[in-house]
Amino acid sequence: QRQMCIRDRARTRGNFLGLCPVTKSVTTRHARIHSDGVGPGTGEVFVSARSDDGEIADRVASMLRAKGHTVFLARDSMRTGEWAERIDDALDAARHMVVVGSSLENIKSGWVKYEWNQFHIDYHSEKKPGGTLVPYLKRTIKPALLPRPLLLWQAIHFDDSRAGDLPNIEF
Known about the structure:
By secondary structure, the chain is of the alpha/beta class. The chain has helices at residues 2-11, 21-33, 54-66, 74-77, 83-93, 104-107, 110-124, 148-151; strands at 45-48, 71-73, 96-101, 132-138, 156-158. The protein has a 5-stranded parallel beta sheet, sandwiched between helices. Strand 1 (45-48), helix 3 and strand 2 (71-73) form a beta-alpha-beta unit. Helix 5 (83-93) runs parallel beside helix 7 (110-124). The longest helix has 15 residues, at 110-124.
């Protein structure tokens, strides 16, 4: 019987429920979406930034943590694993998002665009009631050039000397 258990565990890769990977992923994601807590490797506030804006994002995350918020910042929160699944899990858990952008190109870059777009969709489909998306943008970015979904949110602007300061932001 012990050999059978070991063999079954190996066959299901540690999944004692015997669920297929797709069903397990859907079930796990559903549980995270509908839980009230913040899961491991996730945060109440999702900070989205391209690696070019990493230093600014680090300062924003530190300031939010100092105010008592749990923060997801990919470069801090993720070491290895399936990036897409981890990003989706963190997006599901986050109630608020700060999008850091020192250039329009950074805001429109692959993962950053995916992250703010998914948050925006979740907000408008009522998966994030009371949620807030804050575009944190370099002052030189012209608002009229922002992607339409970001125009709906109140942006906070920074210049190089104050990059990383989020004045009196409340969630």
